[in-house]
Amino acid sequence: MERVNKILKHPIFLREQQRIKAFEKNRIYCGHQSEHLLDVARIGWIMILEEKQNIEKSVFYAAALLHDIGRAMQYETGEPHQLAGILLAGQVLEDCGYSKQEREAILEAIRMHRTDPINEKNLAGILYRADKKSRACYCCESEPLCNWSNQKKNLIIQY
């Protein structure tokens, strides 16, 4: 997990987390800050273990920590965050020692995390599912106002 901890201290990651925090200061719905990122990482890791998938822990954690890094840019420009974050995430991954093959897989998972590969058992599919399952709708005060359908909301704990 040494490389994962490097991500947490990387200047680009820290800067973008601060920018996201500022943009979401008055947001009443789910946020995209460190708590969410770690929830995605831990839920995804549980899925990987339960489904007996061959995905390295530091690779999944990197994808989870970086999947929303483009959020501030989306708030500024309207560019979808899964695309806006690719360059930022790529630089962080390279600086933190991820191989070219690992970077390509992680960046593809980030790019795909807004599509619906729900049944896929690969890095992208697990990131997608963990991202959705990380939302604590069952105890959210804004749940009645949320535009997610009741079918999509997490009204019970699964992970």
From TrEMBL:
Pfam families recorded: HD
CDD domains: HDc
Domain HD: residue ranges: 33-136
InterPro entries to which the protein is assigned, alphabetical: HD/PDEase_dom (IPR003607), HD_domain (IPR006674)
Identification of the protein by name: HD domain-containing protein
Origin species: Candidatus Fimimorpha faecalis
